From TrEMBL:
<feature type="compositionally biased region" description="Basic and acidic residues">
    <location>
        <begin position="30"/>
        <end position="55"/>
    </location>
</feature>
<protein>
    <submittedName>
        <fullName>GntR family transcriptional regulator</fullName>
    </submittedName>
</protein>
<dbReference type="InterPro" id="IPR000524">
    <property type="entry name" value="Tscrpt_reg_HTH_GntR"/>
</dbReference>
<feature type="domain" description="HTH gntR-type">
    <location>
        <begin position="66"/>
        <end position="133"/>
    </location>
</feature>
<dbReference type="InterPro" id="IPR036388">
    <property type="entry name" value="WH-like_DNA-bd_sf"/>
</dbReference>
<keyword id="KW-0238">DNA-binding</keyword>
<feature type="region of interest" description="Disordered">
    <location>
        <begin position="1"/>
        <end position="66"/>
    </location>
</feature>
<dbReference type="InterPro" id="IPR008920">
    <property type="entry name" value="TF_FadR/GntR_C"/>
</dbReference>
<dbReference type="InterPro" id="IPR011711">
    <property type="entry name" value="GntR_C"/>
</dbReference>
<dbReference type="Pfam" id="PF00392">
    <property type="entry name" value="GntR"/>
</dbReference>
<dbReference type="Pfam" id="PF07729">
    <property type="entry name" value="FCD"/>
</dbReference>
<dbReference type="InterPro" id="IPR036390">
    <property type="entry name" value="WH_DNA-bd_sf"/>
</dbReference>
<keyword id="KW-0804">Transcription</keyword>
<keyword id="KW-0805">Transcription regulation</keyword>
């Protein structure tokens, strides 16, 4: 089930200010009208206070860089899952920036985030090396995930009504759709979305956060590992719908078997 938000950049909607001289100026006495210079000074004070008028809309807040960083982070995560970033290889921020058509700065910031997550490591004066992982690490991640998720899902199977499980059906179907076209990056995102939705029913936000991080790490490619084939993705995705059916039926034996098999299958 295991094959990877964020996004920033929306501009706030400002309500335009109303000038006390917007209409009816012709009816005012000359001495009541504001001279052109005074109006300019007033506009300058309004801008300094963050106010604005109909004739001069406000400048957008500076959020573009963070938006770009988020998009680059998503693109790098997809490249990791797809195997485009090869374990053991070193990639420089300028080279990756040229690849994505951006400066090195948002790439470097995104890579620093991936370094915190353990996906890459910093190589001084060179760039970032993609972490090399072996089968043992993947097996350990599967074991830890099973220790966390199996008891939670068994508990939920006993208490959550059928109609609440049915709401998750579109998320399971999304994993099947991504698997059908062999899109590993899209499958990874859909897979994690399904698991998050299931675990969210526990009401434990910390559990959801920890499990999602373990899930993400299980999706990174192995050193010289085989590329996940579409048939394997389809088989993995089919387990989601089977799991939902078992949860709805409150079949605890099948739930436990499916979850354990799911974690120990291709890509965890």
């Amino acid at each position: 089930m295991e094959q990877g938000s964020a996004r920033e950049g929306a501009r706030p909607a400002y309500a335009p200010g109303v000038s006390p001289y917007a209409s009816g100026n012709a009816a005012r006495a000359p001495q009541d009208r504001v001279p052109e210079q005074a109006r300019g000074e007033q506009a300058g004070r309004e801008r300094a206070r963050g106010e604005h008028t109909h004739s001069e809309p406000p400048a957008p807040r500076a959020v573009q860089r963070h938006s770009v960083r988020g998009q680059i982070l998503d693109a790098l995560r997809a490249a990791l899952v797809d195997g485009e970033l090869v374990p053991g290889q070193v990639y420089s921020a300028p080279a990756l920036g040229a690849r994505f058509g951006v400066s090195a700065t948002p790439v470097r910031e995104a890579m620093q985030r991936l370094a915190v997550e353990g996906a890459v490591e910093v190589v001084p004066n060179r760039g970032f090396r993609v972490t090399e992982r072996g089968p043992r690490e993947l097996a350990e991640l599967a074991e830890v995930r099973a220790l966390i998720e199996v008891p939670v899902m068994l508990s939920l199977a006993r208490t959550v009504p059928a109609h609440r499980w049915s709401v998750l059906r579109p998320l399971a179907e999304a994993t099947v759709a991504a698997a059908a076209v062999g899109d590993r990056a899209a499958y990874a995102e859909a897979d994690r979305a399904f698991h998050r939705a299931v675990l969210t029913l526990s009401g434990n936000e910390q559990l959801v956060t920890v499990a999602d991080e373990l899930h993400r790490r299980s999706q990174w490619p192995l050193v010289a590992g085989p590329v996940t084939r579409r048939a394997e993705l389809l088989a993995d995705a089919a387990e989601h719908t089977a799991l939902l059916d078992a949860l709805i039926a409150q079949d605890l034996t099948v739930v436990q078997a499916l979850v354990r098999e799911h974690f120990n299958g291709a890509d965890g």
